[in-house]
Input
Amino acid sequence: MVTELVKTAVAAKCLYDNAGMTGNYECAYSLGLLSYIEGLDEKDQVTELETIYKEVMDNVYKVTTDDKKVKHPSDCRADEKRGKVGGAD
Output
């Protein structure tokens, strides 16, 4: 249930330019999506977000607005349902 709420919150916030992440679950889920889009290695277990954040920010240049998954976050959600993306539980 919590995971679905986070997915919905992040997807809704992607529609606005001024929205910010308000919780650890939203941040973790967003970092997981960005890691996937950037092609970073999937982590089996994450105990703190700082390392993931640094890795994502070091590779953010790989993300372009031409990427269909950036324009359509629901594509990432579909991949996740097929087991291709790690999410925050």
Summary: The chain has five helices and no strands. Confidence is low (pLDDT under 50) at residues 85-89. The CA atoms of residues 25 and 33 lie 12 Å apart.
